[in-house]
Amino acid sequence: MKNLVSMKDLSVEQIRAILEQAQAFREGAKSTLKNHYTMANLFFEPSTRTKMSFEMAERKLDMDVLPFEAGFSSTLKGETLYDTVKVLEAIGIDALVIRHEENNYFESLVGKVKPAIINGGDGTGNHPTQSLLDIYTIWQEFGTLKDKVVSIVGDISHSRVARSNADALTRLGAKVRFVCPPEWQGEFEAVNDFDEVIASSDVIMMLRVQHERHDGATSFSKEGYHEAFGLTIEREKRMKESSIIMHPAPFNRDVEIASELIECDRSRIFKQMENGVFIRMAVIEMILKGRE
User: Fold this and answer.
1) Which one of 88, 167, 199, 267 has the lowest number of neighbouring Cβ atoms within 10 Å?
2) Which of the listed CATH numbers 3.40.50.720, 3.30.230.10, 2.130.10.10, 3.40.50.1370 matches domain 128-269?
3) What is the pLDDT of residue 215?
């Protein structure tokens, strides 16, 4: 593996290898990279978790991290993403994490530039490391994904998390279901009655309503959405005793999830964030070792 832009880049065996390496890092294993590397994180969309998680992973791997601020870069002068990456290649960057609003932005880069490309999220398309940390969190909880029922609920059509997880979770043996308003279904087969899936789900994965991708048009009030498609306190009471709550975050409190549930006993939301550092360490190490 020389880049990671989509979960479809990874075989089931590679996914399992990443999980095992993440667990090894969690237990205190040290990096086995032979060389010293320099990375940069190019985020053209806002990010807290993904950007900071990657930077923490890079520092834990003892890498130099070159700061990059999209708002102060020459992209504001019309420089293309490809040309920006070629500049960073010329000054010696070994690998780049990129988040960009354009779907499949990486098609202009992979195979055409020297630095390794790790996709930190492209438009509504892919978010592979989020999918991997979600998988890792479920694996930690249950020891397997086979036959686990994962219900992904919310703004499905605008979610790169839903797209990445739909493929990967299914290949790992999970049963994936989607719940959303009919107008947010996109290409997915989905139900629009959240109450149908509550009691039979092992994982309830809530998604943020991405207002910024709706062009200001939505037929729901916050209260109306929470009542129809939110994880309310009443719905949580009907969940299986062993089931867990997940959310890629950021979360809108009392919209897709009741504020009281964000840190409840069955919530793994902050565990997902913690796991993201170890997963990203494993991904970076696997990619750079493949290039040594």
Assistant:
1) 199
2) 3.40.50.1370
3) 61
Q: Which CATH superfamily is domain 7-126+273-289 in?
A: Aspartate/ornithine carbamoyltransferase (3.40.50.1370)
Nearest to 288 by CA among 100, 85, 146, 115: 115
DSSP-derived letter for residue 246 is E
Integer Cα distance of 174 and 5 in angstroms: 22
Cα 193 to Cα 28, 112, 153, 182, 221: the distances in Å are 44, 46, 10, 10, 18
pLDDT in tens, 129-176: 999 999 999 999 999 999 999 999 998 988 999 999 998 999 999 999
DSSP single-letter state for residue 48: S
Map residue 279 onto helix, strand or coil: helix
Asked if residues 88 and 67 have their Cβ atoms less than 8 Å apart, the reply is no
